[in-house]
Amino acid sequence: MSIALAMIAAHVPHICHEEKAPDFQRPLIDSMKRIGQDMQAMGIDVVVIASSHWMSTFKHYVDGTPVHKGILTAHECPDSISNVHYNYPGDEQLAGQLANAGEGIGLPVVAINDPTYILDYGTVVPLRYLVPKEDIPVVPLSLAWAADLDETFRWGQQIGRVLEQSDKRACFVSTGTLSHNLVRGVESQPSLSEQALNKQFVQYLLDGDYESAKVMLPQFARIAGVESGGRHLALLLGVMDGGNYKAKYHAYAQSSASANYILTFHPEK
Predict the structure, then answer these.
(1) Choosing a second label site near 230 at 20 to 30 A (CA), which of 164, 205, 240, 262?
(2) With b meaning 16 or more CB within 10 Å and e meaning fewer, what string describes 53-71?
């Protein structure tokens, strides 16, 4: 049918276990819970999710495993994320279609089917709130270090075309932060300069000025240390390219000087 919803989601480690989350990060949890309820009401058939913690080296990977089942303990922070069980259905057919579309424009896109692969916490943490019943098929995507922002944007365009032509109602999720120059201390805010850049980029999104956001992204990513080098944002902008989307702000919280936003993008016909 089409892309029914797109979004920027947060995956900060401290929100993985809701009961342990600090109060100032509660808005991230609460907003993703509400969005998850909206997704159920919308009848979302599949979630395609690109995580800035699945950074592949050379190739773009599409995980078409029929069932994503495992136990996650994060190498980066095993004290915050440990023994997290998950069990989501996959969508092997859609994953194959996405990989074929990427290959069709000469990109090194590979569909994988490996039940032993453990999902990263950038994927699992937001899904715990967006799909709490684990009842919506999920197609995880990697972000490739060897791909610059332009290539990543073109790959996003292909993803968008496939999802628009699909007979399923899709939600595309890009999970990662804006500024990401980390320091110790979960309560620490980004610098004033980084906050100004974050706010300007978000304002472009809220204004529907996606072209300015795309133009700003390379320098913004470099100066503010945007997570994944900005690839998760370039991919999202590519997915929405050519469509008419209205952005909605839901929440913000800092985490060790990173800037975590929850934004949704709603297609307008």
Answers:
(1) 164
(2) bbbbeebbbbbbbeebbbe
Q: Give the Cβ contact number of residue 42 at 10 Å.
A: 12
Contact 208, 82 (CB under 8 A): no
> CA–CA distance from 261 to each of 6, 205, 233, 241, 257 (Å)?
14, 12, 12, 21, 13
Residues with Cβ within 8 Å of 75's Cβ and at least 6 positions away in sequence, in order, are none
Give per-residue pLDDT as tens, 151-160.
999 999 999 9
Model pLDDT for residues 35-93, shown as the tens digit of each residue: 999 999 999 999 999 999 999 999 999 999 999 999 999 999 999 999 999 999 999 99
**Phi first, then psi: what are they for 110, rounded to 5°?**
-130, 130
Predicted TM-score (pTM) above 0.90 = yes
Question: Three-class SS string for the chain?
Answer: CEEEEEEEECCCHHHCCHHHCCHHHHHHHHHHHHHHHHHHHHCCCEEEEEEEEEEECCCEEEECCCEEEEEECCCCCCCCCCCEEEEEECCHHHHHHHHHHHHHCCCCEEEECCCCCCCCHHHHHHHHHHCCCCCCCEEEEEEECCCCHHHHHHHHHHHHHHHHHCCCEEEEEEECCCCCCCCCCCCCCCCHHHHHHHHHHHHHHHCCCHHHHHHHHHHHHHHHCCHHHHHHHHHHHHHHCCCCEEEEEEEEEEECCEEEEEEEEEECC
Neighbours of 133 (CB within 10 A): 7
Among 211, 203, 216, 215, CA closest to 247: 203
